[in-house]
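Let us begin with a simple case.
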Amino acid sequence: MLIWSGLLAREYEKELEVFIPLTGPVEKNRWLLFLSAIIPLCLTGLAYYLHGPQYHIILSVFLVSSFLVQFSLTDFLWQVIFNKELALFALLGASRLLITGGEISDCLMASVVGVLAFFLLAVITRGGFGGGDVKLIGAMGLWLGSDLLLTTVIMGIILGGLVALLLIITKKRSRKEFFPYGPYFAITGMILFVLCIN
């Protein structure tokens, strides 16, 4: 996943504004490799501990955490969540619903309402939320459903807002600078998904 993100970043290198500069290819950065591997493995282990040997749950947690970690990293590194990765994440979420017989109507409603609500927020806030955030919420809706997605959005906005406020107070960022909210939705969504999946 991380190597794929690095390749996508190189494809769009001229269009990306780098937030955290990298000194070499992303796949050679040991810290990024460590984070992208250890977090999904830890959350998968936690899912096994909480839910027992239910392999469809373990696989779902591994996939969700792997993708959401990637989205967090790319949003921090390059201020973008790549469409190709989001499309695959959404496709896997829809496939899971069809295979497991999950609450298809609820998840579809969460996805559609999430996209519409965040599109309006993006317009109202004039870039406070980006297109990547809109698509991320839509894709997450297919995995989380309406209740968990609503909780994720509320907690993600609060957490992201607190971090943004802290950065402004400490003068590490100005109010006009871009602030990535995607990682805070991803972190909240990962935790809720592990705890509440059934």
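The second case is a distinct protein. As before, the sequence precedes its structure tokens.
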Amino acid sequence: MKTIRETADLFDVSTRTIRYYEEIGLLSPARSEGNQRLYPASELVKLKLIVRGKKYGFSLEEIKEMVLLFDKDRTGRKQLERTIQYGRRRIEEVALKIQELEEMKREMEQLLVVFNSKLENSKGDEENE
């Protein structure tokens, strides 16, 4: 079992973040006799899933649903099905964002060509004066 500080260091998150995950029901640490939070391997696995989910842009509600599904279905099947469903949707969102960013890049490149042309024309005008 790991303390909250050890767990935070292990996953490169703040202790405040871990306490928040506990507050919203994502984590359920054990407690020592001195009431210190202790995280067994099962909670570390949950936190790993939470951190990974955040990295890939899932909402905390989606992550909570995916994490808690394993508690309801120990085969992991429902959790995998939901993860696949959310994963496909997230891939579509990322693909759309990439498309939007590529369009923005093209537009900016076109503007830079126009701006460079104006700059070059203005230099020529200055030299002719």
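The chain has five helices and three strands. The radius of gyration is 25 Å.
Keep these points in mind for the review questions at the end of the chapter.
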